[in-house]
């Protein structure tokens, strides 16, 4: 798990901790979630602070991280919380 306070690095860790799940597949899913193509190299640029992810991408990443945090801390299986609940919480925690 990343030790710095970097949303993108944490999302990358969360998105690839599932066995067989690669960063490439996570980026494809993220692209589908936000409705546009995201290149993997752009994710690395966001992680390294060269660019800032758009607000909708940050919100999608936060939603994924929240779900993983709830799963790890509460031992709740994935899918316990609806996508709408996670999206609502992510919206509250995301930049305007």
Provide a descriptive summary of the structure in words.
By secondary structure, the protein is mainly α. Helices cover 64% and strands 0% of the residues. The protein has five helices and no strands. It has helices at residues 7-16, 23-34, 40-47, 55-74, 83-93. The termini are far apart.
Topology of this protein?
Layout: H1 7-16, H2 23-34, H3 40-47, H4 55-74, H5 83-93
Helix pairs in contact: 1-4, 4-5
Descriptors:
mainly alpha, 96 residues
Please mark out the parts with pLDDT under 50 across 5 or more consecutive residues, or reply none: none
Shape: globular
Summarize the amount of helix as a percent range: 55-70%
Give the total of beta strands.
0
Note the gap between the termini: 27 Å
The percentage of residues in β strands lies in under 5%
For the biggest sheet, the summary is: none
Mean pLDDT, all residues: 84
Number of helices: 5
**N-to-C order of helices and strands:** HHHHH
Query: Structural class of the secondary structure composition?
Result: mainly alpha
Quick structural summary:
It is built from five helices and no strands.
């Amino acid at each position: 798990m990343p030790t710095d306070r970097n949303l993108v690095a944490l999302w990358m860790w969360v998105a690839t901790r599932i066995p067989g799940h690669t960063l490439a597949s996570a980026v494809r899913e993220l692209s589908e979630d936000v409705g546009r193509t995201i290149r993997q190299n752009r994710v690395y640029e966001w992680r390294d602070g060269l660019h800032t992810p758009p607000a909708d991408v940050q919100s999608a990443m936060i939603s994924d991280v929240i779900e993983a945090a709830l799963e790890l801390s509460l031992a709740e299986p994935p899918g316990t919380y609806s996508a709408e609940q996670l999206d609502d919480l992510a919206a509250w925690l995301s930049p305007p």
